[in-house]
Amino acid sequence: FNSPSYLSNPTIYDGLTQKFSHTNRKTEPFVHYFDTARRLQHNDIGPQWHLIDVGAVKVASHLLQFVRMTFGWELEARGP
């Protein structure tokens, strides 16, 4: 998705109408890689390489911080 040819005229898929359309405008790269190395331990991954509940919480916590730092979004608690 970050190739120059794609970024020059991105394609959007509408799931409701099941149709593709082009934006007809150039865009910036938007695919980011989130590396989980050194964040998970062997016991955070269960059978068949699926995360257990503790592993999922760790990934979610680190991913929130990654999003906050990468995009500059201030993440605040809303609600009770």
Question: Can you describe this structure?
Answer:
Strand 1 and strand 2 form a beta hairpin. The chain has helices at 4-8, 53-71; strands at 11-14, 19-22. The protein is built from two helices and two strands. The mean pLDDT is 86. The chain folds into two domains: 1-30, no CATH class; 32-80, no CATH class. It is 30% helix and 10% strand. The longest helix has 19 residues, at 53-71. The protein is α+β, with helices and mostly antiparallel strands.
Strand fraction:
5-15%
Please state the oligomeric state of the protein chains shown: single chain
Report how far the terminal alpha carbons are from each other.
Answer: 39 Å
Radius of gyration over C-alpha positions, nearest whole angstrom = 18 Å
**Uncertain runs with pLDDT below 50, 5 residues or more?**
none
Largest sheet: 2 strands, antiparallel
Tell me the series of helices and strands, N- to C-terminal: HEEH
Number of strands: 2
Read across the widest sheet, the strand sequence of neighbours is 1-2
Proportion of residues in helical segments: 25-40%
Q: How many domains is the backbone divided into?
A: 2
- Estimate the mean pLDDT confidence: 86
Helices and strands: which structural class? alpha+beta
Shape: extended
- Alpha plus pi helix count: 2
InterPro entries: SGNH_hydro_sf
